[in-house]
Amino acid sequence: MATPVTVHGPPLSTAVSRVLACLIEKDVPFQLIPVNMAKGEHKSPDFLKIQPFGQVPAFQDEATSLFESRAICRYICEKYPEKGNKGLYGTNPLAKASIDQWVEAEGQSFNPPSSVLVFQLAFAPRMKLKQDQSLISQNETKLEKLLGVYEKRLGESRFLAGDDFSLADLSHLPNAHYLVNAAEREELFTSKKNVERWWGEISSRDSWKKVVDMQKQST
């Protein structure tokens, strides 16, 4: 029996949960190895051998080590094309390009403001840190404007890259989940008809429900 791929990191991490959702969608067996970041385990010499920046996730598949969650997701889809959701990263060059452009939009346009909001609204209070209301307001405005673009796009197609669920949609799940469920910013998604439909559909996928269960079990 082949050794399952290993993912190093806590499932509560948005980047780790992105990779876990991809693995589950692709029906690829994996082993999750917890990393206690509070104790600095991600900065240990052994961990830095597989993740030179000391961040999570770190990913291993036999002799291959990778980092950066979106790159890992692409690798999983390319390495295991016949497993699980075969169309997760498209089945032809045009489909892949369409998915890639929306994954890039997520990484460059959605992730920055949503990450600030997740930290300020969900994590800062738990860490007893003062919230920066100016920063919150600025990034709410940025995200509201961006989701206006999504609203238009999702009026043209069921999902971001077309009519099939793909990595483009999956990549948005981690931060959007925190915004809706931990940061009390559900209205960012529910105030727009097409975005609300899209969010309801992608967040109810079995793969994501399993990731959320893993997150709950880790707390």
From TrEMBL:
<protein>
    <recommendedName>
        <fullName>glutathione transferase</fullName>
        <ecNumber>2.5.1.18</ecNumber>
    </recommendedName>
</protein>
<keyword id="KW-0216">Detoxification</keyword>
<feature type="domain" description="GST N-terminal">
    <location>
        <begin position="3"/>
        <end position="84"/>
    </location>
</feature>
<dbReference type="InterPro" id="IPR040079">
    <property type="entry name" value="Glutathione_S-Trfase"/>
</dbReference>
<dbReference type="InterPro" id="IPR010987">
    <property type="entry name" value="Glutathione-S-Trfase_C-like"/>
</dbReference>
<dbReference type="Pfam" id="PF00043">
    <property type="entry name" value="GST_C"/>
</dbReference>
<keyword id="KW-0808">Transferase</keyword>
<dbReference type="Pfam" id="PF02798">
    <property type="entry name" value="GST_N"/>
</dbReference>
<comment type="similarity">
    <text>Belongs to the GST superfamily. Phi family.</text>
</comment>
<dbReference type="InterPro" id="IPR004046">
    <property type="entry name" value="GST_C"/>
</dbReference>
<dbReference type="InterPro" id="IPR036249">
    <property type="entry name" value="Thioredoxin-like_sf"/>
</dbReference>
<feature type="domain" description="GST C-terminal">
    <location>
        <begin position="92"/>
        <end position="219"/>
    </location>
</feature>
<dbReference type="InterPro" id="IPR034347">
    <property type="entry name" value="GST_Phi_C"/>
</dbReference>
<dbReference type="InterPro" id="IPR004045">
    <property type="entry name" value="Glutathione_S-Trfase_N"/>
</dbReference>
<dbReference type="InterPro" id="IPR036282">
    <property type="entry name" value="Glutathione-S-Trfase_C_sf"/>
</dbReference>
